[in-house]
Amino acid sequence: MGQQVLSDKKRIQELLKRLKKEHPDARCLLSFATPLQLLVGTILSAQCTDERVNQVTPALFQKYPDAASLAEEDLVILEAAIRPTGFFKNKAKNIQSCCRILQRDHGGQVPSDMEALLRLPGVGRKTANCILANAWNRPAIIVDTHVKRLSHRLNLSRQEDPDKIEIDLQAQIPRKAWTHFSHTLGFHGRRVCVARKPRCESCVLSRLCPSSATTS
């Protein structure tokens, strides 16, 4: 069957509907209880799986319950605690620098606005949006590798830069759906529209997707 012909608005509505139905469990996969824990977790998740991060963070958060304890720790000891996540020297440096800024400028708390988050070492828009969406319940588009790949395949953006992809998606997706769209599209990228061999034959989006192998 060929691609379903719909107006842009109707197509987006149908994409959102099908993604929500297909992935009702879509959510942030990092385990956290506080905004600080999510900040640390997102820094650790760079070039590392969420599963591995979640194996490291329970002991880490028990030992370091607040920004002050992370800011004051010996850097070598902190590096050892996060070593399994890879790139541990740079990650430890960023975590400690972030926590020192939080102590100095924000009373030890993670800020809830984009500009302040972006001033933290190691925090780009993806990390900031993840924190805004999941810790502060603010609508946000989170452009991870899966969202980037599927945005191209679904022809929602032709940009390569994640910040520009975010802008394209913001213009098309209703604001109230930004966060859930990010999570459901990410889950779809992990489960169905995988990088090397997308499972187009079992994809609920195949009739809406110009890249589908089932499109004729």
Chain-wise SSE layout:
Blueprint: H1 8-22, H2 35-44, H3 50-63, H4 67-72, H5 75-82, H6 88-105, H7 114-118, H8 125-134, H9 145-153, H10 162-172, H11 178-191
Helix pairs in contact: 1-11, 2-8, 5-6, 9-11
What are the salient characteristics of this protein?
56% helix; mainly alpha; Endonuclease III, domain 1; 2 domains
CATH architecture classification name of the largest domain: Orthogonal Bundle
CATH topology of the largest domain: Endonuclease III, domain 1
Number of alpha- plus pi-helical segments: 11
Order of helices and strands: HHHHHHHHHHH
CATH superfamily heading of the largest domain: Hypothetical protein, domain 2
> How many independent structural domains?
2
Helix amount: 55-70%
Describe the structure.
With 216 residues, the chain is an all-alpha fold. It has two domains: 8-26 and 141-208, Endonuclease Iii, domain 2; 35-134, Hypothetical protein, domain 2 (Endonuclease III, domain 1), CATH 1.10.340. Helices cover 56% and strands 0% of the residues. The protein is built from eleven helices and no strands. The longest helix is centred in the middle third of the chain and has 18 residues, at 88-105. It starts with 7 loop residues before the first helix and ends in a 25-residue tail after the last helix.
Brief digest:
The protein has helices at 8-22, 35-44, 50-63, 67-72, 75-82, 88-105, 114-118, 125-134, 145-153, 162-172, 178-191.
